[in-house]
Write a structure and sequence with these properties.
By secondary structure, the chain is an alpha+beta fold. The chain folds into two domains: about 5-75, Arc Repressor Mutant, subunit A; about 80-140, no CATH class. The protein has helices at about 25-35, 40-45, 50-75, 90-95, 95-100, 120-130; strands spanning about 5-10, 20, 80, 85, 105-110, 115-120, 140. The strands form three sheets. Strands 6-5-7 form a three-stranded antiparallel beta sheet. A hairpin with a 2-residue loop joins strand 5 and strand 6 (about 115-120). Helix 1 crosses helix 3.
Length: about 150
């Protein structure tokens, strides 16, 4: 059995977040428990409807999602002047510094056509981007004028 049998994405269930099939338990809630140091046992206590296989499916789904996102950004990348491969999102960022200045100190989500959303919290802008249908948001913090660019994922 693969995670495809246990994890579902349905726009009418939990706003389209990936959930364990037949429940309203988001994969993100399971991963949050794991990141906080939770064991399979403690996660099953927090979510009695889950099985060990459900938890493993959530982990497999997350691993596959990260792998797919990496592959997508790598395939779409193109070389910069220094030979580094840049994703279409970073290409947009590099070619629109004036537009980004007004967002100094904020988190933004961009796609190859421009800014999708912005705000003071990384979590907030990711949630807004997902609500707009972007499954893997490209997020970074626009530095203040005195800072250097330091984050993007």
């Amino acid at each position: 059995m693969t995670y495809h049998d246990r994890i579902q994405i349905n726009a009418s269930v939990c706003d389209g977040q990936p959930v364990v099939r037949g429940t309203r338990i988001p994969v993100a809630a399971i991963l949050t428990q794991l990141v906080a140091g939770g064991s399979l046992h403690s996660i099953r206590e927090a979510f009695p409807d889950l099985t060990d296989d459900d938890i493993r499916a959530a982990i497999e789904f997350a691993r596959d999602s990260v792998s797919s996102a990496t592959d997508q950004h790598t395939r779409q990348a193109s070389p910069s002047s220094d030979g580094l491969e840049l994703s279409p999102e970073w290409q947009w960022v590099q070619s629109h510094p004036d537009q980004l200045r007004s967002y100094a100190g904020e988190w933004v989500v961009v796609d190859p056509s421009g800014i999708v959303t912005h705000g003071p919290s990384c979590t907030q802008v990711v949630d807004q981007a997902i609500a707009k249908g972007i499954s893997i948001p490209f997020v970074f913090r626009v530095p203040e004028p005195s800072e250097s660019l330091y984050m993007g994922f």
